[in-house]
Design a protein that fits this description.
- With 749 residues, the chain is an alpha+beta fold.
- It folds into five domains: 153 residues, Rossmann fold, CATH 3.40.50; 155 residues, Orthogonal Bundle (Topoisomerase I, domain 2), CATH 1.10.460.10; 123 residues, Topoisomerase I, domain 3 (Distorted Sandwich); 115 residues, Topoisomerase I, domain 4, CATH 1.10.290.10; 93 residues, no CATH class.
- Strands 2-3-1-6-7-8 form a six-stranded mixed beta sheet. Strands 9-10-13-12-11-14 form a six-stranded antiparallel barrel. It has a four-stranded antiparallel beta sheet with strand order 19-20-21-22, with helices on one face.
- The chain is globular, with a radius of gyration of 32 Å.
Amino acid sequence: MKKVIIAEKPSVAKNIADALHIKGRKDGYFEGESYLITWAFGHLLELYDAKDYDEKMKIWRMEYFPFIPEQFKYKVKMDQGRKKVDSGAKKQLKCIKDLIARDDVDGVISATDYDREGQIIGDSILNYLKVKKPVYRILLNEWTEDEVKKGLEKVVDNRSMQPLQDAGISRQHADWLIGINLTSVATLKYKSGKGELFNIGRVLLPTLKMIYDRDMEILNFNPEPYFKLTGTFGYGEGNYEGTYTLDKKDKFEKEEDLKVIQSKLQDKKGVLVQKEVTEKNEYPPVLFNLSALQGHITSKYTGFTSDKVLKVAQSLYEKKYITYPRTASSVLDESLVDKAKKVLFSLKQGLPYEEELVFRKSPRVFNSKKVESHSAIIPTYMKPSGLGRDEQLVYEAVRNRFLMQFMPVSIVEETVFTTTVEDVEGAFISKGKVQKILGWKKIENDNAKDAILPDLIEGTPVTIEKVDITSHATTPPKAYTEKTLLRAMETCGKQFKEEKSQEEGEDNELMDAILSGFSIGTPATRAETIKKLCYTGYTVMQKKNIRCTEKGKKLIETLPIKELMDLEYTGKLEKTLADIEKGTVKKDTFMNHIIRFVVGGVDTIKGQKAAPIQYTKEAFAPASVPKAKGSTSKTSTKKQSAAAKTTTAGEKEVLGKCPLCGNDVIEGTKGFGCMGYKQGCKFVIWKADEALGRYGKKTTKTLVKQLLKKGEGTIKGLKTKNGTKFDAIVTYTFNQDKGLGEWKFRKPE
């Protein structure tokens, strides 16, 4: 007798067939001595549309809602145009039905993905076909030959998966009820033109609300000016910088206070009174879960979205190169110790740091208490070949993150200088870092060029070479990127520090938040939610920033169902689904709540006095915030400094005033531009300027400051084609109409 194995996709079916050395491919299945292996194409079935229950629902009318089916029904999925039944799905369902009906078949094994969606993909097929033969479940985290064979030896009765099925169905039915009912009445209430649609969703709306809230914070942010005093101290062979600090404060509200200190420093001597040196262990970032992998890739590489990362990871999973990607865990179950050891042994062969890769059972890596359903994403023991660029980047990220866990700890030496000046209250603080042992950073060549302080001893006398006062302003919170939004969805809005290397305490905090069940969506759905927000016109991408559109803003401000935008409420719904999956909450309890919520929500919108929503497709909040009012000067004693300072992330020094409009000029990625660009000013000086490039030079910050202050600047060491070097005085004129700049050169007098 044989058993029918139903895989989620053809590629997975082939993996199973390859593992069992079955070569006999038929139309829609593989046939071996003991198994018939067939497949779905993801969801072969879908829920009825409202109009399938009642013809009148083809046209939306307020009085038809709320619409609650007495019993949810399924049909063969429709084609992309939703005009007819998908012929491929219909054919494959018949193939599965015929295989199960064969006389030589005595059971069925569901081999869909081991998660909510995978469970209902398999179960919906079996229920639709009314299968009476015994049904079993194979539970795998990867599709390598070894794991497939082990999994088939340990299949479980599919009835034991009822809680997982209940959670999947509850999610599916709840989203249908909320989407159909609230989208319909919201659209009828708020539309201002033909073809407009206001999508309302259980996961969509709270995610939009987070983006809206962040944009409002940015919009309403009032920058506060502050000033800093930086000293440069000479010691004979070189110099170092320190920041003036008084009572542990290095930011000052009044420039005048620093000018008083600056004047006192004139012609004074200083001394290095204290040198503190400490060694610090830096641990590697934890293993990837899906959200972390998506955030890592989208922030590091252009051309990636979180949805694309998921698709690439899924492809690698189906090709047997990585483990199951739709996971919320960042550690491995302790049962995987031997497997991880095997993977490490396989992957480290031939690497330049092979001898440093030593397997160890660390609680940072192996901790069953912190695993939710699936362990973290790791590579398998199979070494890939023939990967495309995107697959290679995602695979290397997963592989490298795994290897880091078994490298030596990274050790840095942090040094702090305290320099005092005679008769001056306070001190100048200098901080530097030296990488002593690279450790796990070798894997991705993470050898940051931190500030390095000279090897001086306490008591070293120093001279004051210059003292600069620089102006700054407080910065608003950053707009969401896919990376930060995924993290916020994962933890239901709870914020965590962004660090290259997470300490154990932060890891625990994050995992506790995830394991509590409070989240927005699941690892499998978050990328699709972000994608849908853009598709519906609620958000737009500004480079890597996700910004709320005017349509999204007005919907958030107009929709009266505030629970749907409440992170706490949304988190409780997701937690309830997690509890259903664990078997601690009944499906009916959840669904009864959702029905009451939908009925109440429909009635609330119906009773609302609201005008149609008018909107543009643009982001409602500006891309930048106004600069703080206050001094933007930079004064210096002794040698005037031309070096721009950016002391913390987002703090940009004003290099001078735009000669065209008078706004501030700051440094950008590719050039030095005017902050008045929003008002139409096009002034810019490109770093890789073509005219200067012909003489082997690029535009520097020092040169820009000279040009803006004096109207001219000096460039030394220009080189002609024949190699002759010369110095020149240069001027720069920008044509606003043409958007072009012109350089003029003359010999120094």
